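Protein entry
_____________
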Amino acid sequence: MKLKRQVTYRPELVDEGIELSVRHLKQYFSFGHGRNAFKTKAVHDVSFDIKKGECFGLVGESGCGKTTTGRSLIRLYHITSGSIYFEGQRISAGRRWNDKEIKWSRIKGNNKIKELRHEYALKIDEEKDGAKKKELAIERDHQIKEIHEHIKNTRKEQKEAIAQIKYDNKHVDRKLMSKMQMIFQDPVDSLDPRMTVEDIIQEGLRIQGEHNRYANSKKVADVLERVGLIPEYASRYPHEFSGGQRQRIGIARALIMNPQFLICDEPISALDVSIRAQIINLLNDLKEEMGLTIMFIAHDLSVVKYFCDRIGVMYFGQLVELATSDELFKHPLHPYTNALLSAIPKPDPISEKKRQRIVYKPQEVHDYSVEKPELVEIVPGHWVLANKPELEKYREKIVELDKAEKKHKKADVSAEKVPSKKEEAKLAKEKEAQRKAIEDALKAQEEARKAEEAKAAPAPEEKKEEEPKVDKKALKAEQKEAKKAEKEAKKAAKLEAKKAEKEAKKAKKEEAKAAPKEEKKSEPVKPEKKAKAVKEEKKPEPKKAKKAEPVEDKKPSKKEEKALAKEAEEKAKAEKEQASYEAYLADKAKWEKKVQQEREKARKEREAERAKGNVDLPDILK
């Protein structure tokens, strides 16, 4: 009776505290058919372990296989070969290596059988004794039988392994896989634009069979607050958010499943600098709160050093170096690791100018024609991809780096040592001599500057005319007086207008009183006669009377009075603007002259310092 199969389990991984174990991972992609078929080796023979609560960084250039590795771990791709263990259970496996073992064991076995038959045929032909010929034939048949048995056993073993791989891939525990979540690289493409934030975050819960709307909504609100967003955002769509907010939504979608292992696939590469810092700090806080194990994929080694405990460096689908962050920055062995470190920009402009960029050229650096490289542990915890000659070079390099570090430390210690009394006296004398020399130079510069200013300075009268001193208080007083004058002019104009109105009214009244009473008592005249009388009245006689009136007695009309008042206001306003503009010009000229003097003084001081040998004045004159 056959025993029922079970998923492959390795308890030793759990005992050692290893959360995720990757063994000989290979991920190939095939294209085309027939003669045009070819394979792309995106990931080739990668192995590493991630311990519980650890942050493991995976670094490399674009296209080296980092994202493919992360997607293979979470079973978004069916891996070509190798095994992935999570919490001791195998969650993914590939059969390519097993198929190749069957194929190559058969090919090699058949070739060996041919060689044996040819070899024994020559021996039998040379041998004359019939008994010995029979012994050689029996020996040959025995060896051929062993080869056939080996081929058969290999085929049986690999077929059993393939059957186990198929079973493991089919019977993966969903609850176990829900403990592994991923934050994707692009926050725009990873969110469905037709779903609300609540639906996006709840999708994982629904897949796992949790259909309680109230409980799911409460979980969404809690997780949004945890990642720094408002619960009211749950009803919005992804296009209504910024890049940093979208990335936070992606983190919330991963966290709602209460994961133990989180794959962060370049979560900060599409964000600006300020948002990057926020996301990294958020992940740090979540790691401490929830006890997460994180695999952090990135380009920037400086960010990975800050965030990760161990770092793996990938190049062309292979892991070329693996060590703790401190060890990797202390002893970078592989040439590609040195090239990545040389690409890190430095904030200091002086050291940034001196920084030399290393370009990695594998054809010039490595010679793998005789011996192929392997991932070897050169120092405890430090793995590097190399062959035997390269390992010797790397060991020598470690010794040289340690010596250089010791010398640097000794230099720092000697610089920090307290000098003796004699040394202090010598230093004091040197400082005193330098101080005197600098003071003399400064005095000479000051005298020369004064002499130049005295020559260039104009006569006192001319100076007053050209550059009149402007006092701010006086300007303010003038502005106040101008305002008062404007108000008084307006009042005077109003008073004059009122007086003119009163005089006009009085004149009308006097004319009315002077008119003859007979006109009032006269009988009503017919319209025709009245028109003739009006025409007669409009004859040039009254004009003579008007001409006789003196011109001075004429009084301006209301319109004229208003126009005069307006002209007075405009004139006062123009005078005020002119005064303020002149004051501004005077202040500007004074400020420009002061700035020019300060620049000239600074330039002369710099020239004096250079002439004296670049002496740092502030440190000496303390």
Q: What stands out?
A: The longest helix spans residues 558-611. The CA atoms of residues 525 and 533 lie 10 Å apart. Residues 459-470, 516-553, 617-622 have pLDDT under 50 and may be disordered.
